[in-house]
Design goal:
CBS-domain; 451 residues; 3 domains; 3-stranded mixed beta sheet; Tetracycline Repressor, domain 2; MgtE N-terminal fold
């Protein structure tokens, strides 16, 4: 591998690092991490189990420790912070911005937080305490509280001089906010206008209309809104219209990634905190809860089957074909459930379009139900040569697939109204519904038609 390639390809990057660990070549490991940026270091650490990760910590450049801690998964951050004193954390957060300090202190206990607060610069401390005052799922918790804002009535030349003296612009700066004496947002000024317009003009002459977010807005709703409007940046105000921060494209990307990650984990019954290399006992515990819930639903389905024991004793073909009915309904429902949960996450479902969705899924379920009912019916007829069994499984497949599609819409909608994450329990409920409806329709029809 060429030296300039070894840090770019993710898989080769990990293989190269594993090779260094096998030696171990401490000088090469030091050089390896020196070449990486903060985000890349964080993702590399997340790619190893705890024991190896602890070893690799020793090779991270000391001046990057704080930024790396702010980037890694929360449970990794918590494991690292757990063994540190307040004075250790004070050194780590020195030089970090308010958002990064807030991330690091999120997992610290109250005593350490209080001690670290006292060591912070007054402005940073105020920003960090403000971020920690917000609930975890609102915009205020994710925003950057350090904005570039100037008072109305000043000249563009004065703004440029002020920015240069105080070194205010950075990679996150998108626009300059114009506020009144009470810090109420009046408008925004682009960096292009700041440079190209007459320097003796005042900022009021070139203020743009602005779109803002409320600091108490749900962060997932805010991310959907910014994506739909294709905004890379937006000011954040409180209920009185006072400027309290800004939400940047990097923040929106982080929110979107976290939301997608959480949805994927919830759909599989995995806790938010679990990652690839979470310790065995912690992973087993978090997954075991949902396995237990799923077991209860399986017993419910078994109970339904048990009510038709006489039919199963007399006709072996019913027992052979029974899983087909439940499986087809389960797949059909899961397809709909996935599409609907995605639509909810993107804020695409509201008002009249929900009714349209119900109608659409009803017809999709009936269309696919009819087609695959006929296919399964034909196969069962060739297999068993029994017209009554063919009729029963054809009707059962049609009924279960039609109702499964409707359930795939209805279940997440009801869960959302109850303020329960549809991704967390939707799949378990849907599986129960499709199993119970599938077995009930198949065995019930068999009892009525055949016996």
């Amino acid at each position: 591998m060429r030296d300039d390639d070894k840090y770019t390809n993710t898989e080769e990057h990990l293989l190269y690092l594993q090779k260094l660990l096998d030696t171990p070549d401490t000088a090469a490991l030091q050089d390896f991490f020196t070449e990486l940026d903060t985000l890349h270091i964080a993702r590399t650490l997340e790619s190893f189990p705890a024991k190896t990760r602890d070893f690799l910590w020793e090779f991270i450049p000391e001046d990057l420790i704080g930024e790396v801690l702010a980037e890694v998964d929360e449970d990794i951050r918590a494991d690292y912070i757990e063994g540190l004193s307040a004075s250790d954390i004070e050194k780590i957060v020195k030089g970090l911005d308010a958002q990064e300090v807030a991330e690091v202190l999120d997992v610290a206990d109250e005593e350490i937080k209080t001690s670290v607060y006292a060591s912070l610069d007054q402005d940073i401390r105020a920003h960090v305490e403000n971020l920690h005052a917000y609930e975890e799922d609102v915009v205020g918790r994710y925003m950057d509280p350090e904005t570039v804002n100037v008072k109305q009535g000043v000249s563009l030349e004065a703004v440029q001089r002020y920015i240069r003296i105080h070194h205010l612009l950075d990679d996150e700066s998108q626009q300059i906010m114009i506020t009144d004496k009470d810090k109420r947002l009046l408008g925004t000024l682009t960096l292009i206008d700041l440079i190209k317009q007459p320097q003796d003009a005042v900022v009021d002459d070139y203020m743009d209309d602005f779109f803002t977010l409320n600091d108490q807005m749900k962060v997932s709703d805010a991310a959907s809104l910014l994506r739909s409007k294709e905004l890379p940046f937006v000011p954040v105000c409180d209920s009185d219209g006072l400027l309290v921060g800004q939400l940047n494209s990097a923040d929106v990307l982080e929110i979107t990634q976290e939301d997608a990650d959480m949805t994927l984990k919830h759909m599989s019954g995995v806790s938010n905190e679990e990652e690839v290399f979470t310790p065995i006992t912690r992973s087993a515990k978090s997954r075991g809860i949902w396995l237990g819930i799923n077991l209860l639903t399986a017993f419910l389905a078994a109970f339904v089957i048990g009510q038709f024991e006489a039919a199963l004793d007399q006709i072996v073909a019913l027992a052979i074909l029974m899983p087909v009915v439940a499986s087809m309904g389960g797949i059909a429902g899961s397809q709909t459930l996935t599409v609907v949960i995605r639509g909810l996450a993107l804020g695409q479902l509201a008002g009249n379009n929900i009714k349209w969705l119900y109608n659409k899924e009803m017809w999709v379920g009936m269309s696919n139900g009819l087609v695959w009912a006929l296919v399964v019916g034909l196969i069962s007829h060739i297999w068993f040569g029994d017209a009554m069994i063919t009729l029963v499984i054809t009707l059962a497949i049609f009924i279960n697939m039609s109702l499964a599609n409707l359930s795939g819409v209805l279940i997440p909608m009801v869960l959302k109204k109850l303020q329960i994450d549809p991704a967390l329990s939707g799949a378990v409920i849907l599986t129960t519904v499709t199993d119970v409806v599938g077995f009930l329709s198949f065995l019930g029809l068999a009892t009525l038609i055949i016996l």
